[in-house]
Design brief:
Layout (H helix, E strand, L loop, with lengths): L1 H18 L2 E2 L2 E3 L11 E2 L6 E10 L7 E9 L7 E6 L2 E10 L18 E11 L9 E6 L4 E11 L2 E11 L1 H5 L11 E10 L3 H19 L1
Antiparallel strand pairs: 1-3, 2-5, 4-5, 4-7, 6-7, 6-11, 8-9, 8-11, 10-11, 10-12
Protein name: Phospholipase A2 inhibitor and Ly6/PLAUR domain-containing protein-like
Keywords: Phospholipase A2 inhibitor, Secreted, Signal
Organism: Geotrypetes seraphini (Gaboon caecilian)
């Protein structure tokens, strides 16, 4: 009996390492594809190879810049599309997955940015040099952007850290993933993430008017 148990333990030890998925792990901040010569072995809980394509615009009317992130992940990281609007800064991300060793996910297409206002707004700002920003302005949310978010990110690239800060409108899945849907893997460190519901301007104006009327009545 002891010999049988020993054999089972040895067999389990031999099988376990091979059961982990192998995936590409790379980040390219300037292109829409990247690869490595040797895939990494994923943690046993990571069942999918995840690719996230990100499109950013840093100024109104500016060029669209593409970047790609590939890493090990889970099923909940798959098939996510996010939208972020921080005034001059716009970002859309889309993720796809596959679940075989060193596989390539299906082609990722970035959807067109929705432009119809949804009646909500957030205070927004963007910094491309530090992970905080203070000069905020009202930004109208569009499409499915029903949340106000703020966060800072440290990006590790080529041995040099880059920092950005984003405050603005975003889709709910940016909150659900704590921005993981857009900044995935060891190259990114998200700090100070906060999320709240978008505000309706009409409500703010109504409250301001009501407060004014009450003060006038109080002092008349």
């Amino acid at each position: 009996m002891r010999a049988v148990l020993t054999s089972l333990c040895i067999l389990s030890a031999l099988i376990a390492p091979g059961a982990s998925l192998l995936c590409q792990q790379c980040t390219d901040l300037q292109h829409n594809n990247c690869s490595t010569s040797a895939p990494v072995q994923c943690h046993s809980s990571q069942t999918h190879c995840v690719s996230i394509l990100r499109q950013t615009i840093l100024s109104v009317g500016g060029p669209k810049m593409m970047s790609i992130i590939k890493s090990c992940g889970t099923k909940k990281d798959c098939d996510l599309t996010t939208s972020t609007n921080a005034g001059s800064f716009q970002m859309i991300t889309s993720s796809k997955c596959c679940n075989t060793d060193n596989c390539n996910p299906p082609q990722i297409n970035i959807p067109l940015k929705e432009t119809n206002p949804n009646g909500l707004y957030c205070m927004s700002c963007y910094s491309g040099s530090i992970d905080t920003c203070d000069k905020k302005e009202n930004t109208t949310c569009v499409g499915g952007e029903d949340r106000c978010i703020q966060y800072g990110v440290t990006i590790k690239s080529g041995g040099q850290d880059m920092k950005i800060a984003v405050h603005g409108c975003a889709t709910r899945n940016m909150c659900d993933t704590q921005a993981r849907a857009a900044y995935y893997g060891s190259s990114f460190e998200v700090k100070g993430f906060q999320c709240s519901s978008g505000t309706r301007p009409q409500l703010g104006l109504f409250l301001s008017a009501l407060t004014g009327l009450l003060l006038m009545k109080l002092f008349s």
